[in-house]
């Protein structure tokens, strides 16, 4: 998400940072480029105008023009305003009501409400340790109730049994009674959508709101719809007491304008991003981290959190102990490769890094792609455990055997071993606290050469 917007911002900031001093013409030119970048990213015109109007007087202030690093000062101003537009802080899910806490998911048909209901249920059960019951109120779309029931069965999430012929309000009343009996902490109501907003639809969801008195009403919106998503948010806000927005298909939106526009237009916080098809692909929305990613500053905190969630506490402790001892084997390298695959491959990990566009261009120029992970995994799996723990014993005959087993050649084995040696040296430096953190300079040339 935000790829095009990030690339454009990085270009603008790179130009501003190179200038030893800035005059008004240079600032104006930079702001024009930022305006164009926002419009191309599908941010609505009114939002773009408001954003530039807030940034411009600060960017043209005397303290900027006289600053020793005016480019950095402009970046900070844009960053702070972007964070304000996205929301100053992360807004937690409201679980303060007396259980069972009711929550509604509303939105247009095809926005992903049903799958998002299951994702939110999984998040609440795993992260908040709540017992969740899912309820489908969509009696109109063929098999909509069956879809939610199936998602519940596949992921071991309790779903209210379907009773043919019941109307949405009757289902709400039955769900509340069932939740009281089975001890559910949270009830998620998946409401019916329409291809467009209409009076009948709005009337029904208002009745549902009055019946269940929800602690949260989430608008589920497809980020790929761009500016349309912002107008949809405004319409729902005028009808319901919206408390949060969940943007779906955020992983497929390279422009990212919906996120910027929806928060500003609706004045409702974005609380989650749907970033994939799997049930665990729901991310908490952190405005400050998203602002960093848009401006090419990276989001290492989110990357570490994703990795920690996937690895588990026991594996993290083991890795920490090995790192302190300066130990790093090919088994550890294999675990890293598999972890990278789970985090979306090389490109997925790089998207969280500072200077992402530079890193990607370096990788493209060097001909590095996702196949390197599969190839290296195959090579390591063709080794014996003794070879993985002590690569120094891998001589010419062993390389031939490993090459045959992995469908590669001895030259490729040599490349992997050189990569591993460099990684091992980096890990030893980290264990002694000698390795500096990532910067916006991209991948070190020596490591890039070994990855080719």
Side by side, the strands of the main sheet go: 3-2-4-1-5-6-7-8
Mean pLDDT, all residues: 79
Q: Shape from CA axes? A: flat
Low-pLDDT regions: 434-452
Compact description:
The chain is an alpha/beta fold and 452 residues long. The protein has helices spanning 3-18, 24-40, 45-59, 62-65, 70-86, 113-127, 144-154, 168-182, 199-212, 227-239, 257-266, 287-294, 300-311, 313-324, 330-342, 345-350, 356-366, 371-381, 385-389, 396-406, 410-431, 445-451, and strands at residues 101-106, 132-136, 158-159, 186-190, 216-222, 244-248, 270-274, 282-284.
Description:
The protein is α/β, with parallel strands linked by helices and 452 residues long. The chain folds into three domains: 3-86, SRP54, nucleotide-binding domain (Four Helix Bundle (Hemerythrin (Met), subunit A), Up-down Bundle), CATH 1.20.120.140; 101-294, 3-Layer(aba) Sandwich (Rossmann fold), CATH 3.40.50.300; 300-451, Signal recognition particle, SRP54 subunit, M-domain (434 Repressor (Amino-terminal Domain)). The protein contains 22 helices and eight strands. The chain has helices at 3-18, 24-40, 45-59, 62-65, 70-86, 113-127, 144-154, 168-182, 199-212, 227-239, 257-266, 287-294, 300-311, 313-324, 330-342, 345-350, 356-366, 371-381, 385-389, 396-406, 410-431, 445-451; strands spanning 101-106, 132-136, 158-159, 186-190, 216-222, 244-248, 270-274, 282-284. Strands 3-2-4-1-5-6-7-8 form an eight-stranded mixed β-sheet, with helices on both faces. Helix 7 links the parallel strand 2 (132-136) and strand 3 (158-159). Helix 10 (227-239) runs parallel beside helix 11. The longest helix has 22 residues, at 410-431. The chain is flat, with a radius of gyration of 26 Å. The chain starts with a helix and ends with a helix.
């Amino acid at each position: 998400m935000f790829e095009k917007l990030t690339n454009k911002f990085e270009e603008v900031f790179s130009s501003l940072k190179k200038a030893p001093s800035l005059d008004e013409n240079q600032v104006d030119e930079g702001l024009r480029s930022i305006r164009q970048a926002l419009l191309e990213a599908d941010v609505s015109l009114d939002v773009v105008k408001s954003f530039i109007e807030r940034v411009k007087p600060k960017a043209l202030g005397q303290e900027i023009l006289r600053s020793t690093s005016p480019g950095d000062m402009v970046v900070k101003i844009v960053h702070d305003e972007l964070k304000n537009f996205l929301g100053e802080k992360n807004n937690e899910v409201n679980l303060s009501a007396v259980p069972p806490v009711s929550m509604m998911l509303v939105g247009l048909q095809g926005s992903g409400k049903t799958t998002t209901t299951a994702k939110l249920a999984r998040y609440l059960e795993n992260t908040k340790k709540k017992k969740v019951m899912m309820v489908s109120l969509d009696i109109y779309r063929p098999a909509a109730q069956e879809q939610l029931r199936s998602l519940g069965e596949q992921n071991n999430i309790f779903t209210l049994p379907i009773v043919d012929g019941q109307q949405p309000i009757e289902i709400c009343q039955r769900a509340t009674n069932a939740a009281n009996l089975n001890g559910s902490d949270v009830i998620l109501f998946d409401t019916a959508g329409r291809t467009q907003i209409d009076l009948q639809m709005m009337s029904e969801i208002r009745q549902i709101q009055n019946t269940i008195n929800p602690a949260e009403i989430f608008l589920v919106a497809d980020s790929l719809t761009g500016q349309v998503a912002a107008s949809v948010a405004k319409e729902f806000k005028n009808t319901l007491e919206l408390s949060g927005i969940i943007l779906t298909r955020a992983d497929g939106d390279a422009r990212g304008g919906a996120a910027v526009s929806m928060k500003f237009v609706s004045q409702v916080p974005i609380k989650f991003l749907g970033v994939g098809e799997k049930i665990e692909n729901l991310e908490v929305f952190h405005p400050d981290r998203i602002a960093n990613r848009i401006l090419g500053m990276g989001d290492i905190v989110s990357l570490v959190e994703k990795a920690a969630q996937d690895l588990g506490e026991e594996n993290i402790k083991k890795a920490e102990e090995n790192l302190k001892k300066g130990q790093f084997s090919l088994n550890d390298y294999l675990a890293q490769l598999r972890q990278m695959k789970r985090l979306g491959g090389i490109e997925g990990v790089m998207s969280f890094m500072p200077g992402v566009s530079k890193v990607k261009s370096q990788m493209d120029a060097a001909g590095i792609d996702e196949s390197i992970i599969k190839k290296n995994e195959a090579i390591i799996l063709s080794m014996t455990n003794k070879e993985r723990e002590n690569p120094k014993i891998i001589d010419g005959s062993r390389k031939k055997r490993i090459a045959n087993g992995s469908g590669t050649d001895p030259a490729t084995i040599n490349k992997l071993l050189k990569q591993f040696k460099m990684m091992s040296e980096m890990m030893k430096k980290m264990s002694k606290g000698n390795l500096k953190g990532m910067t916006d300079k991209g991948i070190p040339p020596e490591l890039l050469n070994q990855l080719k």
